Amino acid sequence: LGRMVHNDISMSPLFSAPAINNSIFKIDWLHAVDYGVASDFLGNLFELLIAKKRIAGDTRLLRARQLFLEIKAFYAARDVSCKLDELTPTMVKKKGAKFPKLNCKAGEARALIPFAVELSQRYCRDDDLEESTVKAMAKHLNHCYEALSHRDIEGRSAQLKNNCRKFCLLFSSLDSAFS
What we know:
The protein is mostly helical and 179 residues long.
């Protein structure tokens, strides 16, 4: 609210209602993380592996198809209810887009986070700064989801906060180093 006032942005009339202040608003995990951050991360991970030819195949299309076969094997080994129906290169990065972002539903992104850990362990090299950072990011993002899925969320809030902070710092450092 202070930034809005400082930047001369008009406030929503909602804030003039009794007992309404910014402390009653909570971040919507579904939109902020599942559909936002997780989709961005997955798109960047998939694009990294496709572009660097870590996945088998002579073309981007063949590498995307091979990656989808690995996703299907991941689904088959687990009880996943929200699954991608396909994976194409334009689902990873739309033509003309500046950055990759996996085009998928929020639940599909959420279900792929443990896969991202396995995938990064399998294909990302430890001697490559970008790839080793991506491996660490996948682990931290997965730990965030693990903390959320635990019944004792209050007891896990420190785990969530710690891993979220580490993930964000790593994502920011990658953006600075490789943009």
